[in-house]
Amino acid sequence: MMKHFITSTILLAVTFYCVAQQSSIPRDTTFTVWSAWNKIKDAYPVAVPVKEQLPNGVVEYRNLIYATIENTSYGPRHLHLDLFRPQGNKKLPALIMVHGGGWSSGNKSMEVPLAQKIATNGYVTITVEYQLSPEAVYPAAVHNIKAAIRWVRANASKYHINADKIAISGTSAGGQLAALVGLSDGIKKFEGSLGNQQFSSSVQGILVIDGVINFLAPLSLNKKRTPNSADIRWIGGSYTEKPQTWKEASPIFYANPSSPPMLFINSGIPRFHAGQDELKGLFTQWNIYYEIHSFSAKIHPFWLFHPWFEPTAKHMTDFLNKIF
Predict the structure, then answer these.
(1) Distance from C-alpha of 324 to C-alpha of 320, rounded to nearest angstrom
(2) Is pLDDT above 90 for 177?
């Protein structure tokens, strides 16, 4: 009895230690649905924040650990994902979903309403946590997300996923990451050393919602910045200081005739999809399928609000139906 008590006490202490270590990770909480709504509600009184609600017929698996980074200054760093799928055992295509927030803020819960909605249409949707710039700068997030894709393939049988039909989507900074992850297939420096290395991190479709395609495009490069600008903090220096890294982090430079089809959904603010026109030209030249849909509203995080949420989900679902 005493031995059992001591063992339980030790396990409890270890658990509290790990939780404390995880909670000490630096967080930037400036980007939330409500902070975004407060910025637009006066100009767009029609905007209503979308709330998550698990639909009938959809099952969820929350906070699954897809990778662990050992020996960080915060202790073992667990990376999590949420998974949604229709009930039943039918093998379905999957969509990895990457949240936005300037590579610094936001969290995977912001993708959950879209994930739940798209899951009702016959997809396994997976919202992914990744390391943000207060914790780890470029290319840590890329390594994280590639590891998440490998985890999905490693667990495809368990969650009844068609491992040959995996797409990736992203909103804002998540869109830039989705494009970079999706277009850089087979480039070793982007793979990282996290788990399930025996599986591929390739994707068969890319969905970019208001994400930058080329940091070097005039709409991006000519933007006025301070040393504390989100992209400078994430990349680890300004363009003047690190021109090669700014190019390296730009998805367009990895596009090639074997790139997967892409969907672009844009706000009415052009700088958030800098480089898209050039990529569109390349895809036309290579005869790669793409779609572009645009909203006139000058609201960057439009996908978080009605009345733009439903058409965004429909564009995404229609595109997935076409490619899969």
Answers:
(1) 6
(2) yes
Q: Is residue 18 part of a domain?
A: no
Q: Is residue 5 domain-resident?
A: no
**CA separation for the pair 245, 247 (Å, rounded):** 5
* CA distance readout (Å), 235 to 3, 172, 230, 232, 247: 51, 16, 9, 5, 10
Q: Which band of pLDDT confidence, cut at 50, 70 and 90, is reported for residue 138?
A: very high
Helical H segments across 173-275, by residue range: 173-183, 218-221, 230-235, 243-248
Q: Where are the alpha helices (DSSP H) in the chain?
A: 2-23, 33-40, 112-119, 140-154, 173-183, 218-221, 230-235, 243-248, 276-286, 309-323
Whether 4 is in a domain gets the answer no
Query: What is this structure's pTM?
Result: 0.93
Q: What is the DSSP letter of 170?
A: E
Instruction: Tally the domains of the chain.
Output: 1
Which residue matches tokens 């780890």? 136
Looking at the domain assignment, is residue 13 inside a domain?
no
pLDDT tens for each residue of 49-102: 999 999 999 999 999 999 999 988 889 999 999 999 999 999 999 999 999 999
- Cα separation, 152 vs 95, whole angstroms: 10
Residues forming beta bridges with residue 126, ordered by sequence position: 83, 96
CATH, residue 294: 3.40.50.1820
CA angle 125/20/29 to nearest 5° reads 55
Residue 159 amino acid letter: Y
| Domain assignment of residue 62, given as a range | 29-323
| Contact in structure between 315 and 287 (CB atoms under 8 Å) | no
Sign of CA dihedral 27, 29, 33, 39: negative
Give Cα 103 distance to the centre of its chain.
Answer: 10
